[in-house]
Design brief:
The complex is a heterodimer of chains A (about 140) and B (about 130). Chain A has a single domain (about 30-135), classed as Up-down Bundle (3 helical TM bundles of succinate and fumarate reductases). Chain A contains five helices and no strands. Chain A has helices spanning about 15-20, 30-60, 60-70, 75-100, 105-135. Chain B has one domain (about 20-130): 3 helical TM bundles of succinate and fumarate reductases. Chain B is built from three helices and no strands. In chain B, helix 1 (about 20-55) packs across helix 2 (about 65-95), helix 1 (about 20-55) packs parallel to helix 3 and helix 2 (about 65-95) runs antiparallel to helix 3. The chains are: A mainly alpha (about 140), B mainly alpha (about 130). At the A-B interface, helix 2, helix 3, helix 4 and helix 5 of A face helix 1, helix 2 and helix 3 of B.
Chain lengths: ~140, ~130
């Protein structure tokens, strides 16, 4: 590891232990996103092929076939489960990319917030639409 | 220019200075397909919302789905095929196994090859179901 590039401060009393831990992340946690990403990945290995194959098979019957499948108990359940896991997984994945490439602080937080709101909006609108087709369609 | 968070710690490898190899390509492919999946699942979600809105307006659902629909569904499935296979490999890596560079490289090639073959199969299915073939 290279030397600390910052100019050393002569007055040592001003240094606090905070200096040594700053930028290294919060103590006691930090792996939640890692575990959440891997857990949702495990779910998606099953849910995604299940959703995509059912969706495509019913799409052969056109929009009417899709609407009927989305409103059926099995179709609604598979779609809700898939979009729940997918919205969760894609939000964490995009956040990792944003954190890697966006270095401007203000822009970084704007992007992370937009990503969170987008994933939440997608999940809410799809969940509402599926429930609407299931109970009112 | 040294960013304030750097402080002598190792930085992420930059694409410009790395020699290309298969595991690196698979890693980049994982990100690229991840973004593709993000877009794909969003478009499919919008489609579901549109179906519900059409139904709410009292209209009957339209007939056969357009080529654009099948193109999006196909590109999403091809992107997801690679992402799931490489994702399973990531889960294996998380268990602490499979870090040997030569083995990793071979598995990366196998994942690219399998994704390519499956993508051709999916293209055939998509064209058939879209009524093109």
């Amino acid at each position: 590891m290279a030397a600390n590039p910052q100019t050393p401060i002569k007055v040592s009393e001003y240094r606090t232990p905070l200096k040594r831990v700053r930028y290294f992340g919060a103590a006691g946690h930090g792996v939640e996103h890692f575990i959440a990403q891997k857990s949702s990945a495990l779910g998606l290995i099953v849910l995604l092929p299940l959703f995509l194959v059912s969706f495509a098979l019913n799409a052969r019957e056109g929009a009417a076939g899709l609407t009927a499948w989305l409103g059926s108990p099995a179709g609604a359940l598979v779609t809700l489960a898939f979009f729940t896991a997918a919205a969760y997984h894609m939000r964490i994945g995009m956040a990792a990319i944003v954190v890697d490439y966006v270095h401007n602080r203000a822009l970084l937080y704007a992007c992370l917030l937009a990503n969170t709101f987008f994933a939440l909006a997608l999940w809410l609108s799809v969940a509402f639409s599926v429930l609407y087709l299931a109970f009112r369609g | 220019m040294t960013p304030d968070w750097y402080r002598g710690r190792p930085m992420s490898p930059h694409l410009q200075v790395w020699r290309w190899h298969w595991t690196m390509a698979a890693s980049i492919g994982h990100r690229v397909t991840g973004v593709g999946n993000y877009l794909g699942v969003s478009l499919i979600g919008l489609w579901i919302v549109a179906l519900a809105m059409g139904r709410a307006d009292g209209g009957t659902p339209a007939g056969p789905l357009g080529l654009l629909f099948w193109a999006v569904l196909y590109l999403f499935s091809a992107s997801v095929t690679f992402h799931i296979m490489n994702g399973i490999r990531h889960l294996v890596w998380d268990s602490g196994r499979g870090f040997d560079p030569d083995l990793s490289s071979k598995i990366s090639v196998a994942i690219f090859a399998a994704a390519f073959v499956l993508a051709i199969g999916e293209l055939y299915l998509a064209l058939t179901w879209a009524g093109v073939l």
